[in-house]
Design goal:
It is built from three helices and six strands; from the N terminus they run E-E-H-E-E-H-H-E-E. The chain is of the alpha+beta class and 111 residues long. Helix 2 packs antiparallel against helix 3.
Length: 111
């Protein structure tokens, strides 16, 4: 089974099945997430009016990390589903404390 690994400060904190398939209601929810982000998102304290794919992924990862801290399984699952659906080659998410923020890195498998 292939996994999406979520690491915080180089420690594995969560793994999500990458082989999951999404049904129509799940895909509709992911599309609504994009629709909400179309209105703008705040990344690292800055409003992104027209966020690109990487900015959206960073925003989702930040919400994923917060959801993990709060044991919010619904948001964790939705965040992982979004990341995998929009970035199917994604295998690892790294969130590391930086000087005054959190550094996010997305690792994709080599093809």
């Amino acid at each position: 089974m292939k996994k999406l690994s979520v690491l915080v400060n180089n420690e594995l904190v969560f793994a999500f099945d990458r082989d999951i398939t999404f049904d129509e209601p799940q895909l509709a929810f992911l599309n609504r997430m994009d629709g909400d982000m179309d209105k703008g998102i705040k990344v690292r304290g800055h409003l992104q009016v027209d966020p690109d794919s990487k900015q959206r992924a960073t925003f989702v990862v930040m919400n994923l990390i917060k959801a993990l801290q709060q044991n919010n399984e619904a948001v964790v699952s939705a965040s992982c589903a979004y990341l995998l659906n929009r970035h199917p080659a994604l295998i690892e998410v790294h969130a590391n404390d930086d000087v005054d923020s959190v550094k996010i890195e997305l690792i994709e498998e080599d093809n």
